[in-house]
Design a protein that fits this description.
single chain, alpha+beta, seven-stranded antiparallel beta sheet, five-stranded antiparallel beta sheet, DUF4331 domain-containing protein, DUF4331
């Protein structure tokens, strides 16, 4: 999936597992950028009595690089504290939760939001900010949208912040894709599926009706750009920022024998990060996934060979015989995929796509790159830039962008003519998809902050 359970070690630590990252110019407040980092993947809404929550022992951060070196110039840090009102009950809540300060809500979280600049300046933007509860059900959380709205905190300087449970907005046919790269709409052409006589079928959304925990922040554009730039010139180098998220834990943890407690010490050590969707999931080999999670984007040159020669591009012609002959020839030529290196590691330079660039420089770094001078689209297309919508992925990422299809088509060769005009993509490259076009219609995206929909509740969640 986008980055759910994408490496061996972090798959064992879901509280620190970054699942999706979004960055876009806010359609409801075009003078701002919205940043969303999701954690704690694959939440079953009926996961009580110990419902999901952020880790008090995890340092969550959203980072901004505005000078192109792959290192953070600005970081927004989230630190959480869990509170218990009643230590003599096993219940998450002892009655309906009608407000964020309801005495019926037994286990709740607050957090501190801090802005840290590369020069060392630290500013506390908010303290004792309350998260909403998880969406338990109609008896426990009878008006969940009101609780979530109350947890959108308006901070000084025109900022907004929200931290809490949301409906999963990422959609993917996980069960099919990781079954030997089978794509249900085309599986009659897949070598193993064809051998079993499997017919073409619609995609199945593996994340349907699941939840995540979101860190959502809306800030003025000038707060993120180099020297506070806020202009309309698309080709100005200051217009593009790089964004990634990380989670860190203390270097040492001691479990207290016979007490059910532990203590931590030492500096924070990064255990998870995420920039572009599917980067560690699909591009980095299994043996190096944990290493990738431990280093900053500035060190991504060591992984560039996997972008230049992606394994999946070699597999597609083998798994779908005769469907990708031009891609097979490109792979056989051993030419570096300069299109993918630009999309994922440097940004797209001026002159490649008319009226667009999100180039951050020569430093190869996995970051979402957002050109903040590109306004929100009046008619968004879920296929983003490859469909002519310059406000969509890989220019940042909106919550509804179909990143699976976009990246499948790019790897299949659709974007290679941008760097080699003599290359003709296979016909399949423009239609390959996992067969999904949006998240579950039962939990639509919001048109305003925090954009991801109301989380599913456990009472109504279907048995699986």
């Amino acid at each position: 999936m986008s980055s759910h359970r994408e490496a061996p070690e972090i798959s064992k630590d879901p509280v620190a597992d970054s699942t999706d990252l979004y960055a876009f110019v806010s359609p409801d407040a075009p003078g701002t950028v919205t940043l969303i980092a999701n954690y704690i993947p694959l939440q079953n809404p009926a996961g009580g009595p110990n419902f999901y929550e952020f880790g008090d022992d995890v340092l969550y951060e959203i980072h901004i690089d505005n000078d192109g070196d792959g290192r953070a110039d600005i970081s927004y840090q989230f630190r959480f504290t869990t509170h218990l009102r009643n230590r003599d009950t096993f219940l998450y809540n002892t009655g309906p939760i009608a407000s964020l300060n309801s005495p019926n809500w037994n286990r709740f979280q607050t957090y501190t939001l801090t802005r840290v600049e590369a020069g060392g300046r630290t500013t506390t933007l908010g303290e004792d900010l309350t998260c909403p509860p998880c969406n338990v059900g109609p008896l426990s959380t009878p008006d969940y949208p009101a609780l979530a709205d109350a947890a959108v905190h308006h901070l000084r300087g025109g900022r907004k912040v929200f931290a809490g449970q949301r409906a999963e907005g990422f959609y993917v046919d996980l069960g099919s894709i990781f079954d030997l790269a089978d794509l249900r709409p085309f599986q009659s052409l897949q070598v193993f599926a064809k051998a079993q006589g499997l017919p073409d079928q619609p995609g199945v959304n593996a994340t349907k009706e699941l939840n995540v925990h979101s860190l959502a922040l809306q800030v003025p554009i000038h707060e993120l750009t180099h020297q506070g730039w806020h202009g309309t010139q698309v080709h100005d180098s200051r217009a593009t920022i790089g964004v990634w998220t990380s989670a860190s834990r203390r270097a040492a943890r001691v479990i207290e024998a016979g007490e059910g407690t532990d203590s931590e010490s030492g500096p924070f050590v990064q255990v998870s990060r995420l920039g572009n969707p599917l980067f560690n999931e699909v591009i980095v080999p299994m043996s190096r996934k944990d290493e990738w999670n431990a280093v900053p984007p500035a060190d991504d040159k060591r992984f560039a060979t996997y972008v230049a020669h992606p394994e999946l591009a070699r597999l597609l012609p083998v798994l779908y015989p005769g469907v990708f002959p031009n891609l097979a020839a490109l792979d056989a030529s051993d030419k570096a995929r300069a299109d993918l290196l630009a999309i994922l590691l440097t940004g797209i330079p001026k002159g490649v796509i008319p009226g667009f660039q999100n180039f951050t420089g020569a430093t190869e770094a996995d970051m979402l790159r957002l050109n903040v001078s590109v306004p929100p689209s009046a008619h968004p297309n879920i296929l983003g830039l490859i469909a002519g919508d310059k406000a969509g992925y890989p220019n940042g990422r909106r919550v509804f962008d179909d990143v699976v299809t976009i990246e499948l088509r790019a790897i299949a060769g659709l974007t290679y003519p941008l760097v080699d005009h003599g290359f003709t993509p296979d016909a399949a490259a423009s239609v390959v998809t996992d067969g999904l076009t949006d998240s579950s219609p039962e939990a639509p995206y919001l048109t305003t902050f925090p954009y991801l929909g109301v989380p599913y509740d456990g009472y109504h969640h279907p048995a699986s």
